[in-house]
Design goal:
The complex is a heterodimer of chains A (443) and B (506). With 443 residues, chain A is mainly alpha-helical. Chain A is built from 16 helices and 17 strands. The termini of chain B are far apart. Chain B is built from 16 helices and 23 strands. Classes of the chains: A mainly alpha (443), B alpha/beta (506). At the A-B interface, strand 10 of A face helix 9, helix 12, strand 21 and helix 16 of B.
Amino acid sequence: MAPQMAQLGALTDEVLLDRLQRAAFDYFVQNVNPRNGLVADTSRDNSPVSIAVVGFALSSYPVAVKRGWMERAEAVRRSLAALRFFRDSDQSGSPTATGFKGFYYHFLDIRTGARVWQSELSMIDTALLIAGVLTASLYFTADTPDEAELRELADVLYRRIDWCWAQGDGGTIKQGWKPEGGFLHYGWEGYSEAIVLYVLALGSPTHPIQGDCYTAWTATYQWENLYDHDYLYAGPLFVHQFSHAWIDLRGIRDSFMREKGFDYFENSRSAVAIQRRYTQLNPHEFAGYDENGWGLSAGDGPTDEQLDVCNEERRLFGYAARGVPYGPDDGTLSPPAVLASLPFAPESVLEAMRNLLLRYPQIIADDRLCSGFNPGVGASDEQPWVSAGHYGLDQGIVLMMIENHRSEFIWQLTRGCRYLSEGLRRAGFEGGWLWQGPAEGTR
Amino acid sequence: MSPFDATVTTPKDAYEDKRLADVHPQAWANPTPADRYALIIVGAGSAGIAAAELAIAMGVKVAMSERHLIGGTCLNTGCVPSKALIRTARLYAEMRDGARYGAKVPGNIEVDFAAVMERVRRIRCHLSGRSSVRRLAALGVDVFFGNVRFAGPDTLLVNEQKLHFAKAMIATGTRPHVPSIPGLREAGFLTNANVFNLTELPRRLLVIGGGPVGCELAQAFRHLGANVTIVQDKPLFLEREERDAAQILSDAFARDGLEVRLNTQVTGVRVENGRKLVDLVSADYRSTIQVDAILTGVGRVPNVQGLDLEAAGVNYDAVKGIAVDDFLCTSNPRIYAAGDVCLEEQYTDTAAASARIVVHNALMRGRKRFSKLVIPWCTYTDPEISHVGMYVREANRQGIPVKTFTVPMHQVDRAVTDSEEIGFVKIHIRDGTDTILGATIVARHAGEMINEITLAMVAGIGLRTLAKVIHAYPTQAEAIREAAKAYVRTRVTQRLRARLQRWLAR
């Protein structure tokens, strides 16, 4: 057994989570360009910036300050660097700009901030970025010039996003836009991580989408009974997590959930139960699948082209959004997706995490979880294939969900955001904390 | 290898001779017309034959005209030959997949394509007997071959010979829609009309269009050994179907080694030094592939031209076909339409069912409505994708609360023993009741399985009753009962829990 795991296994839940969360935070310290605050998508060489990862980084600094992992001034400095960069960035929408209409391209050069990989202007990733921007502005409320500037910039960046434009001529928000070909010609269909996108787009005081846009999206939902669990279907786990990182969806309901007598938080709990049942049934007979070996989600995985993979028959999907029960499923699991389910099903998650760490100590390095592993295609039974390096999205969601589980800190912060609560109301959400009126110090 | 010959004509063999003798004999002499027919049927495809049979059974004098072949698309260039082809394709796929079943994979699996196509022709010829002109004539139908056009509200001309009718039914069907791609016509292409005449397998085949026909044929040719690229301008195949069904099909295509190009358009076809080059564009990514044959025209357009419909006062649209009301009557109260020429649902059985509605409504002053039909359909890929009734998005749009009971095939013993666990049964019900709104099945034999749900819907049987129906064990159709049982469990637990709590509280 790896010595590292022997140590982790002996820790109490609280200490174990603290170690994992701290290590997740260090990803942002180690992979940032301090000059512009941009953070790399992965820890691999020459990785570009993912704007969503910057959103996670901005959300992580308040946590780090609160937990004593970073000086407040340093956190403000890093946050301000990013916000100033985005304010000053090229918004012309040209093929090498940074953004357009207040949105940003998905992947940017970490040095210059220019678009790379011909990536799309991404609505959802801009939403995750701006959720982080607002989170920072909700925490750094001191009456200092830096923190005042931070709050002002956050407002500017949010207000200039033209959400209405992103509807194109269709009902739902478009998934992306490219200078070469205009809008990608598909919208959001089916339940997904897009609640935070719709809520931000509805809450905008400057360019909001129309209310029926949200209804048009929820009209594509599928309410299903699977393995004796009722739930709003979505295959990959991350879908059941991302919006929850920023928004406390416990006890508040939109019209869809009111009709079903359910809420999105309970729904994510069902999603965990369904994942556990699926891996227990293990239809494709993959190694390592059982009630504690689950976690099908978006993440890195082996590909057919890799030479060190001794596998012939099965198709491997590389980086993909794996899902339950329809696949794709190539035997790859995402440990961060398990850990990020912590607020929904703490017992199941902790049991699975301890189990996975014991069976596959290779999935963790420096207390940080790999993006994916596949016990069926490794060098041997005890040596699973393990994704190299780390992914910023994984570390971000792990950090935030551990925090929400431990202290509800992010949720408490964002409850005070009037843009978010206004967006939720316009989407038809009612009840729970939304009825308790604006929290003290609401901005 | 000699270059692929894309100028495909029907092979002359005994099977083809017999089929043509059945469905359009050279020596046929049109009968002397009666003074007036109670019903004239224009088009002798599935709808036309169904209408003729029913009208004759009612004792009515019937005439039928056909421009081309009796039996229409289904028999000659559609369902029948394609299903025969798909069966052999599946067999080859299974041979290669033998190891999965613990079977020894034959050392050298070589596809004898000419033999495959000979079997297709043999089966098509075997089944053409049912549509033979002699059988129809023996039933008492006056069959006229030739060009048809209307000369007035109650008059037809067949090869300039006048026929008078009390009622007429137009069932002229559809033909392949060939997209206007620069260079395509010059380069030559296949459609469903001639693809079944092939005797040599195109080594590299491009299929344009990811609807049911395109998907079925693309996969079948892949299984038969062709390198197939399928181009679809949408983000998924089978646009009409549920996302999960279409996604499973995409995964199956990738597994089979089809080159899948979604969100992609064909911008042009060029022939350079005898090589057929196809230019593709996806968003901003341009590429060129070289192929030996192109299959297109998998979309359909209605056959409304040349009929002089204006002379009969029949309204139509070049794309949507003949306009009919829910009773299948056209803008001329004497004239009805049936089948693909007027329907969005273009399936053989639906065509026949619509034709029977026409006979009732036209001859017996019936008031049968087309919208009352419960119409199932199936795309015969592997796995098959079948559907009946409403989709969830339709229910949501209409404000009907809908809940889906899903049973993945991996929960069904017989699917597991047969290594056919890919797919699912989804039954959509009106939430709060056990009323079935619709269903989608993705499974190896989804087409066989959907019929049980169609029966339940037509007979007004809900999930509560379906749960009581013992299914032979082990069969894949048990998935349907499992969905019904899951429904019952959701009801029982609520009631039982309440009763138990009352009892415990005593």
